[in-house]
Design goal:
The protein has 171 residues and is mainly alpha-helical. 74% of the residues lie in helices and 0% in strands. It is elongated.
Length: 171
């Protein structure tokens, strides 16, 4: 059991470090979105994807370790959460303390990442709306009627004739 707890602590520590490494990438991504720097966003997305892949591998390993711990503790093959594991280690205060600290750090780090992801999502959504608006303006300009056609003498070609009784300020 001790080796499983050590392995869990190692995996959780590595996961927390990866999530912590994602925070500056997300912050830089936020600035890149604001600056409309597509090259930086592409590079940051690649860096982010590499870390996310690594975190996914660690997550798979963490799930396997937690299943093994559940089996050793006689909890069946169900997955226990970290708080349940900490509670089950009442005779091992040092391991409890380490797991609690890791749990708190992970929670804070993931919470910060979620905030940054929401900000990035909102900014990207606004940028997409702006692009769509600009595309609609371009389309409507191309499809507009001939009302903006002028003759060589700069008089508008398709002006309706003035009807009798209309006041003309130029006269």
């Amino acid at each position: 059991m001790a080796s499983l707890i050590e392995e869990l602590v190692d995996v959780l520590g590595r996961e927390e470090k990866i999530y912590a490494d994602l925070i500056p990438i997300q912050e830089e991504k936020l600035r890149a979105v604001i600056a409309n720097d597509l090259d930086a966003m592409r590079r940051l997305s690649d860096d982010e994807q590499n870390l996310v892949d690594e975190a996914g591998n660690l997550e798979t390993k963490r799930i396997r370790i937690v299943k093994d711990i559940s089996t050793v503790l006689g909890k069946g093959s169900g997955i226990m959460d970290l708080e349940q594991i900490v509670a089950a280690l009442k005779n091992q205060p040092e391991e409890q303390k380490i797991l609690r600290e890791l749990h708190d750090r992970l929670r804070r780090t993931v919470s910060r990442l979620q905030e940054l992801n929401v900000q990035n999502k909102d900014l990207l959504s606004q940028a997409m709306e702006m692009v769509e608006f600009n595309m609609n303006v371009i389309r409507s300009t191309r499809m507009s009627s001939g009302s903006s056609n002028y003759s060589s003498s700069a008089a508008q070609v398709d002006l309706p004739d003035m009807e009798a009784g209309t006041f003309d300020a130029k006269q």
